[in-house]
């Protein structure tokens, strides 16, 4: 690959962007970090709002393609580097379930987690994007019980997304520490890519706190 093929990841430590960086490592992808100090509010400044008007990370730039939204980024990157084996091919029977569980993260899990964290009354089940919290989480528990990964024996990019998500949401008590979730999160967190990025995030976050006067 040439330098023009490198992926630029708009990044802040200990954020949703962590999962994208772990995925890039798992894929063996060439990438550069464009680091934002969110403690200093850099994600709300015009320079970054021109990249993502919502002021959220992650976002990636690859050539002329600018991609935001964690779900879209996960699918894009895994397809971009198929040699890593983390994405089922279009004609693979696992492709549909793979896309299902990636989409489930953004469409159902995230809205449920925010309602839970904010202690908001959820919408009526017929209007809610995730039915109700217990039903949403129960579907995940049933799927992961088939393990060791979301799609059974095969690890995919979906597991990178979900492994980081479970680690953080259990840490903050938003998801209960059920055995199946704990085992799954520990399996993903024990991988070298996660270990490397987690250690680097700790250092980077400390530097940002100091720079922001925190």
The gyration radius over C-alpha positions equals: 17 Å
Q: Largest beta sheet: what is the strand line-up?
A: 2-1-3-4
Q: How many domain units? A: 2
Task: Tell me the span between the first and last alpha carbons.
Answer: 40 Å
Number of helical runs?
8
- What is the overall pLDDT average? 94
CATH topology of the largest domain: Glutathione S-transferase Yfyf (Class Pi), Chain A, domain 2
CATH architecture of the largest domain: Up-down Bundle
Helix content: 40-55%
Shape, per Cα inertia axes:
globular
CATH class bucket of the largest domain: Mainly Alpha
Strand content: 5-15%
List the secondary-structure elements in sequence, H or E: EHEHEEHHHHHH
Task: Characterize the main sheet.
Answer: 4 strands, mixed
Extract low-pLDDT stretches. none
């Amino acid at each position: 690959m040439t330098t023009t093929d490198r992926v630029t990841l708009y990044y802040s430590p200990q954020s949703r962007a962590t999962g994208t960086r772990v995925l890039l490592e798992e894929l063996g992808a060439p990438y550069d970090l464009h680091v934002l100090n969110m403690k200093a509010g850099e994600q709300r400044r015009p320079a970054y709002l021109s990249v993502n008007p919502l002021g959220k990370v992650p976002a990636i730039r690859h050539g002329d393609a600018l991609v935001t939204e964690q779900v879209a980024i996960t699918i894009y990157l895994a397809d971009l580097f198929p040699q890593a084996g983390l994405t089922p091919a279009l004609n693979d029977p696992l492709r549909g379930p793979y896309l299902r569980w990636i989409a489930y993260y953004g469409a159902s899990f995230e809205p449920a987690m925010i309602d839970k964290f904010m202690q908001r009354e959820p919408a009526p089940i017929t209007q809610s994007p995730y039915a109700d919290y217990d039903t949403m989480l129960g579907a995940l528990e049933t799927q992961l019980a088939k393990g060791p990964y979301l799609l059974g024996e095969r690890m995919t990019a979906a597991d990178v997304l979900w492994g980081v998500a479970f680690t953080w949401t259990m840490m903050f008590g938003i998801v209960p520490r059920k055995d199946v979730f704990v085992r799954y999160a520990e399996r993903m967190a024990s991988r070298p890519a996660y270990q490397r990025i987690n250690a680097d995030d700790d250092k980077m976050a400390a530097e940002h706190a100091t720079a922001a006067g925190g």
